[in-house]
Amino acid sequence: MSTSNLQTFQDQVADLLLRHRSLLDVLSKHGQSEAAVNRAVTKAITECGCLELHAKRQPYETNMDVTQAQQSLESHIHGQLCENCNDVIRAELGKHLFYTSALCNLLDIQLDEVIKQESSKCSTLGIFNLS
User: Is the pLDDT of residue 131 over 80?
Assistant: First the structure.
């Protein structure tokens, strides 16, 4: 998303957010939307079955170089989101972005600046960005 699109979205959120203008309301809705994203992903695994989770200990060794670590560490995800689960998760992520933007608005923070700062940090720190 370009800077102008992020700013447009943030402006839309500012115009649309009426009921939950209190910082406490936005914080609780942000947490609720995060939980909804987690629940939607969980349902893709437990109800739909389009994704499977094969979690196990990561085979990381301290003497591995970066390339070896990237090749051996995995996401534990098997399968691919079906169209329905993809739509549901996108919708939940959209709501979460809405409340993230609302939080930025209340705290007078520009979302595009947050993304630029984090991107710069990732570029500078590379794989050492273990936050």
Answer: no
Residue 66 located in a structural domain = yes
**E runs forming strands in the chain:** 51-53, 77-79
Confidence bin at 78 (pLDDT 50/70/90): very high
User: Is 0.70 topped by the overall pTM?
Assistant: yes
- pLDDT of amino acid 51: 97
Give dist(CA 128, CA 131) in Å, integer: 9
Range(s) of the domain holding residue 59 = 7-122
Instruction: Compute the distance between CA of residue 102 and CA of residue 17 in angstroms, rounded to an integer.
Output: 7
Cα angle, residue 106 at apex, residues 105 and 111 outer, rounded to 5°: 30
Residue pair 38/45 in contact (Cβ under 8 Å)? The answer is no
Instruction: Please state the domain count of the chain.
Output: 1
